[in-house]
Design a protein that fits this description.
Layout: H1 21-27, E1 37-42, H2 61-68, E2 71-74, H3 76-79, H4 84-93, E3 99-102, H5 106-111, H6 118-128, E4 138-141, H7 151-160, E5 167-170, H8 175-178, H9 180-192, E6 196-197, E7 199-201, E8 218-224, H10 229-247, E9 251-258, H11 264-279
Parallel strand pairs: 1-2, 1-9, 2-3, 4-5, 5-6, 7-8, 8-9
Helix pairs in contact: 4-6, 10-11
């Protein structure tokens, strides 16, 4: 992922923002006895990006990937519409308990900018729901120039989204977070319609670390900087997620990116090991016998 990339990550202040007060209020209202659900994965499974992750002789990358991770942030669906049959094939190749978290196609988010998209959304959902129980949260990533002047479009889209299919929204224009009035209205819209507010942790856009959850889901897209600081940042996330779980958070969806994706599985393995110990869970640590830190 190139979004938020910086040339000198060592000069970035990676200090974690405090949890938003409304997040504390929201999470405190949930049932702490509900079972904790945690999914951690990468953005891609293709061998060209994840060099060194696959043992020699692996013929089907998804089959192997899904034996190591319990989820994938499916970026491929952003670039083109896939057929229902393709989603069925992905479903049938992966084990029980595996989940896909697919991105909405750019035709919806970038080309048509949420206007006049009913037909393409319906086609997308008809196809994606072929994943059945393996369909996780679908995410809408808006263009960086999709500003709050388009609030009405986003509001209409959110209100029209099928309530039975989980959705998360990633806004990138700075005004969604830095303008207090706009942020308040945006967060309230998502909270009212049980839509997750995506958190993006990337070096060049610290404003997207808004720490405002809008339902009982922390959907986090972590972008490493291919720098030693990547591990300390993951340590901070382990601590913060533990704090949110203590408050009432029960759904963690955490996806690891890198500017050079080859390193994503290593970071994800490190994060999973730390999270297992902190939360008392037992997610599989991918390629555990061969993993080591990069720096």
């Amino acid at each position: 992922m190139k979004f938020g990339k910086v040339l000198n990550p060592e000069i970035i202040d990676f200090t974690f923002p405090e949890t938003h007060p409304d997040t504390i209020k929201l999470l405190s209202g949930f049932d702490k006895e509900q079972e904790l659900s945690v999914y951690v994965g990468c953005a891609k499974w293709n061998k060209a990006d994840l060099k060194g992750f696959y043992p020699r002789g692996i013929k089907d990358e998804l089959v192997y990937y899904s034996s190591q991770f319990n989820s994938i942030e499916l970026n491929a669906t952003f670039y083109r519409l896939f057929s229902p049959e393709q989603f069925e094939k992905w479903r049938d190749k992966t084990p029980e308990g595996f989940k896909f978290f697919p991105k909405l196609t750019q035709e919806i988010s970038h080309w048509k900018r949420l206007e006049g998209v009913a037909d393409v959304v319906n086609y997308y959902l008809d196809a994606a729901t072929k994943l059945e129980e393996k369909l996780g949260t679908i995410f809408l990533q808006l263009h960086a120039n999709f500003s709050p002047k388009n609030f009405d479009r986003l509001e209409k889209f959110v209100k029209g989204w099928p309530k039975e299919i989980p959705l998360t929204v990633e806004c990138r224009h700075t005004d969604w977070f830095t303008d207090e009035v706009i942020a308040r209205d945006f967060f309230q819209l998502l909270e009212d319609y049980n839509v997750s507010n995506t958190i993006v942790d990337t070096a060049g856009r610290r404003d997207m670390m808004h720490m405002r959850l809008t339902n009982n889901e922390a959907f986090i897209r972590y972008v490493g900087a291919n720098h030693v600081s990547d591990y300390a940042r993951l340590d901070d996330w382990v601590q913060r997620l533990a704090e949110w779980v203590a408050l009432g958070l029960r759904n963690i969806h955490f996806f690891v990116h890198q500017n050079l994706e080859v390193e994503s599985p290593l970071l994800a393995a490190y994060f999973i090991e730390k999270l297992n110990k902190k939360l008392g869970i037992s997610l599989k640590i991918p390629n555990q016998e061969s993993q080591q830190t990069l720096f």
